[in-house]
Amino acid sequence: MLPQISSAVAISRVSSVWRSYAEISRFIRAAGIWNQHRPRNTRYHLKPQCLSNNRPFTSCRTTLDDNFPASVSGILEDYKKSLDFPQPTHEVSGLEKESPGKSVILHGYLGTRKDISKHMSFIPLQSKDLSYSVQLVSFAQGGDGKDKPVHLKVKTLNSHTPVVIRGVLKTRKPAKDNFISGMRMINNVEVELVDIQHLNEFPKDIIVTSETVFSPEQRHLQIRTNKELRDALLFRATVADICRHKLQERGFLEVETPLLFKSTPEGAREFLVPTRTKGLAYALPQSPQQYKQILMASGISKYFQVARCFRDEDLRADRQPEFTQLDLEMSFATGEEVMQQIETILRHLWKSMLNEDIPGTRFPKMSYHDAMSRYGSDKPDLRLGMEIYRIGHLLPVDLISKISPLLDPVVEVMKLSVSDNPRETRDFVNTFMGTPEAAPFLSNPEGQPGIFVYDSKLPLQGLQPFGFEAAEYVEDILDLEYGDLVVLQARKRVPFAGGSTTIGNLRLALHKAAVAGKYIPAPKGFEFLWITDFPLFSPTNDTDPGQGGSAGICSTHHPFTAPKSPEDVELLLTNPLAVKAEHYDIVVNGVELGGGSRRIHNAKVQEYVLRDILKMSEERLQDFRHLLDVLLAGCPPHAGIALGFDRLIAVMIGKESVRDVIAFPKSGKGEDLLVKAPNPLTREQLEMYHLQLKE
């Protein structure tokens, strides 16, 4: 007889959920069953039992020898039973087409049981994909008056337990609702329960109700209990299939490019992958950019890929450290041809998935400078209105000095129609200014916003500080109405750089607050826009790594982007910051769906940009030697784009965060809270990969 395992160990181990064969093995070995306590010449083997469609599921099993330890025997016996179960004769979704009296075997999950009496229970059976539900009926006794063991068994099983059931279809009176918990109800038939086999247990301590909110650590339960999330994943998969089909139809070849790449200074921070060879590491790709350019030089005329990309950057609602993009490239092509391809794909997606026609024959275009001037953003949401105008040259000096400490600032103005009641508008402003969202604008070193309410009861309708001429001008350009909010904001008199201005950010914050406060309705529809004519180079800053050159400038997009025109090529020699790029972003509703460009296909020009304009060190320049050698081998002109696939799906189904359309997203700190990644390196791993932690 085997010695007993410590009760504390047995209770804690047995009551937990077994997650893998390896865990069962570790438990058995930790208990010393195989090595220390197993009598010599004792063998454990499985005794097969017969499997018959006429016998209960529970009898169609194999059993363990009697001398197997009781605590482990129960665990493995239950597990073994779950390995042997019959295939379904029907899917729940197809039962409404079947005739009453037919015997069926179904797979699915139990819903919440409702006991009508001691002798009768109703239990929903949810389909495997949690899209359909059929009612099971369980009776304590059969027509012959004998007790039915299945009735007692079903009462021992918790909701959400995965099961196999055998039953007989019966006609039912249709229920009042066609849907239950978001699942379509099979309303013309129900299933009288004959037998049931549970395939695993669902713990009683996991409470699932319509009000239950599961944490990111329980992402599996979020997906399982949230139909909206499952629908988003289905929508995502369908869009990917449509994109693939549409691009293949148009002659594009899908090519998978490597995920183990090399470190190159394209513009974003990389994730490094150490190897066991001392001093050598891979880098995960920021994008397939260099590989797809190599494909263009390799004679592949049209390439695409649903690509995984990795960037170690600050996270926001629309960013993840690993993300997916729809990536494409075309040889012998210009940026205009790429834009036409994207417009075709987006029109097709909106029509097939949303049943919406995007108006117009082509998407409108706006230059980067105009977008920043008129909306304070390089990805403006045109649905909001609230266009920005320069007004500083008309304002009194004393007013400018009150809103900004700058000596010669640019002063801009915009309006927001909150209410036709000036008092309500003031209440809205006062509330907004007390929120955390207003803090960045109140602490802005270039000056706080000047806030005015257009009110006919006040001198110059509330614009008296503007002076007569400026007040009249503002009334005219903003088309002011009673109760409108008028906002002034100053900024430095320098060329636009980056993605937004202070007044542009304030525009979005005020509009969002007005919608949240129900002062104005949320914007509807979709407004597509191409932003073009970006600067090819921008001054370096403290937040973006850039390309690591010493010139004090970096590539705005990436260092492979081509100048827009022959005139811009000439400016490379004299004024690089004035060069416009053939770079284009596709924007919808204030979201940048993607960006692309025409590439530099000439190796000597590419090397000139890297060496002489960005002033990369010789060592960093050699990181691009492979690409320069490829371009030397007769690479044709080429252009491409990458759509942020996660953002695309989020926009299409109206989600504010890409986390709502990704199965297993990272948190705001870049962590997978379900699997607890990233995890600390062990001493063995540090030694294996020749790494050392800095104190």
In brief:
With 695 residues, this protein is α+β, with helices and mostly antiparallel strands. Helices cover 29% and strands 20% of the residues. The chain has 20 helices and 26 strands.
Describe the structure.
- Residues 244-678 form the Aminoacyl-transfer RNA synthetases class-II family profile domain.
- GO terms for molecular function: aspartate-tRNA ligase activity; ATP binding.
- The longest helix has 23 residues, at 227-249.
- The protein folds into four domains: 7-83, no CATH class; 92-198, Nucleic acid-binding proteins (OB fold (Dihydrolipoamide Acetyltransferase, E2P), Beta Barrel), CATH 2.40.50.140; 231-365 and 531-661, BirA Bifunctional Protein, domain 2, CATH 3.30.930; 383-520, 2-Layer Sandwich (Gyrase A, domain 2), CATH 3.30.1360.
- The relative contact order is 0.09.
- The strands form six sheets. Strands 11-14-15-26-25-24-21-16 form an eight-stranded mixed beta sheet, with helices on both faces.
- Helix 16 (603-613) packs antiparallel against helix 18 (625-632).
- A hairpin with a 5-residue loop joins strand 5 and strand 6.
- It has 20 helices and 26 strands.
- The radius of gyration is 33 Å and the shape is globular.
- The chain has 695 residues and is an alpha+beta fold.
